[in-house]
Give the backbone structure.
Amino acid sequence: MHLGHGLKSHQFYSDEGDVVIALHSLPHCSTPNLGDVPRQNIYFRVRRFREGNPHEGKRYIGHGVSDHPDVAYFNRKPLQFPPSSNYNPFKTSLEKLCDHWSEWDGMQEFIKQEKEMEEAEKNMKSKL
């Protein structure tokens, strides 16, 4: 299948013990498990330090192990975000989820160049 920009999709077959490292936005699906042994997966969620989060780096929070960015993991108590911090955990999580390249400093210049090239191509086509 051709995905544009010269990219093609490839089916990936894995064997016992294989490891896949991928972004959450990678198009993917599972296939039926027709065997007798249950399929097991382990997910590790890697994320970067959140500069504006007043709770970042505190061990009792347990960032990356919960889907609730506003609740402490170990005691399940709501985290307080002072208005002066201007930090909104849900907004930040949503922004990072929708723009995964924002988490990779090295990709910023590349993405900027790609967008400029796409815009130039679009403008050139519209003049034809």
